[in-house]
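Many introductory courses stop at the sequence. We go one step further.
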Amino acid sequence: MHIGIPREVKPLEGRVGLIPAACSELVAAGHELSVETGAGRLSGYSDDDYRAAGATVVDSAEQLYGAAQLIVKVKEPVEQDLRYLRGDHILFSYLHLAANLSLLKTLQALGLTAIAFETVQEDDGSLPLLAPMSDIAGRLSVQLAARLLHQPQGGKGLLLGGLPGAERGRVTVIGAGTAGGNATRLAAAMGAELMVFDKKRERLEAMRALGDNVTALYPYRDTVEQAVIAADVVIGAVLIPGARAPHVVSAEQIRRMQAGSVVVDISVDQGGCIETTRATDYRDPTYVVDGVLHLAVTNLPGAVPRSASQALSAAVTPYLLSLAGGRLDEDRALRRGINVRAGSISHPALLSLVESN
């Protein structure tokens, strides 16, 4: 199969769909690879690196989309990409369509097949293509929140981990899956005082085992509200695969937080789990609501493109070999990832969302 790797055009998005080593694996399996010039530059990979891996480097997106059957991207297609997509394409990418119904309608109208990285799901419920970016987003959420607490950034002038003679920062994490779990681990290691909420007992046990500075609780509404209001940092990491994230923190709760506190909504790709969330990007990543700093960048891992591209390629390559080898209908995990097939909505969460609207 002819696989195309376009250059990402979302602002300040440096990731690439496949690194050269992954391209080499696909070429060895008998597939043809086209890569748009400059696609890997911000991840530290040159056009010559891709040529050495057996890929053909093309000069434009138009050439790439025109030649390829299977398009492997990182972020959802934007207008600049959509003009080149056609009905016989297979699109394999992060899509987050529950938060972007207009894109869903466009992909339906094109008649193509779209498989979302974030909804590829194994029999045990794991999300193997979402996990590596959730790892990164969770860690970055804490790093960025710690910096935003600095007074020159508009924060309350607090060192997140504290130090002898000074109070620790208080962090509330809602959701202890991959992203929330990584956020909790890093914040705990920094020395912050943590309250983390999740409905799954095994996750709560894992979080509690991190140390005496971590309290892990079931997310009763009143308990979450108290923890949010008292927090210096709130990290929202709620995920329902394929569906829009529910609001678990209200605007009223944000209003009652101390000025200079920080909110990071990792769930923003799926619409956000905090009522005051609005999507941003790295050009203007933060905004203030009722004195509280908000960060809701839709491509958090894009800040570390080399690490992110390497991790993503390692996760995607086995599934891509299966997909390009014509085994889509045999691979249950890939089948669950289909959001649109030949113009029809395939994912149950999306069907439910469209029907409710």
